[in-house]
C-alpha cells in the first residue's frame, strides 16, 4: 500500500504543473489521480495502481492514463501530457 501512496505523491508532483499549464489555456480542465488498492484475490484488478483522468468541457476526455504502477510509467504518461499541453498552448 505504501508504494501506491508514494507513487501517487510522485505522480502529483510530476503532473500538477503540467495540468496547471493546460488549465491556463482552458479553465475547464480538471484532473484526478485515483489510487486502486486491490487485494491479491481480486477478480476485478490485477494489483494496486494509479489511474489519472483529466476532463474538460470540450465533450471528451483531455487525458486518460493507463494503469500506472511505477515511476517510469508516470514519467511516460507525463511526457504524453506535456506533448498535449504544448499542442494546446500552440493552438491558442
Structure explained in plain terms:
There is one protein chain. The protein has 92 residues and is an alpha+beta fold. It has a single domain, classed as Double Stranded RNA Binding Domain (2-Layer Sandwich), CATH 3.30.160. The chain contains two helices and three strands. It has a three-stranded antiparallel beta sheet, with helices on one face. α1 runs parallel beside α2. The longest helix is centred in the N-terminal third of the chain and has 24 residues, at 2-25. The mean pLDDT is 91.
Tags for this model:
92 residues; alpha+beta; Double Stranded RNA Binding Domain; three-stranded antiparallel beta sheet; 2 helices; 3 strands; 49% helix; 20% strand
Q: Summary?
A:
This protein is α+β, with helices and mostly antiparallel strands. Helices cover 49% and strands 20% of the residues. The chain has one domain (2-81): Double Stranded RNA Binding Domain (2-Layer Sandwich).
In N-to-C order, the SSE pattern is HEEEH
Helix-and-strand structural type:
alpha+beta
Fraction of residues in H or I helices? 40-55%
Strand order in the sheet with the most strands: 1-2-3
- List segments where confidence is low: pLDDT < 50 over at least 5 consecutive residues: none
- Mean pLDDT, to the nearest integer, reads 91
Radius of gyration equals: 14 Å
CATH class label: Alpha Beta
Specify the CATH architecture: 2-Layer Sandwich
Number of helices: 2
CATH-derived topology: Double Stranded RNA Binding Domain
* Strand proportion: 15-25%
Number of domains: 1
Which shape, going by the Cα principal axes? Answer: elongated
First and last CA, distance: 41 Å
Characterize the biggest β-sheet: 3 strands, antiparallel
**Total strands:** 3
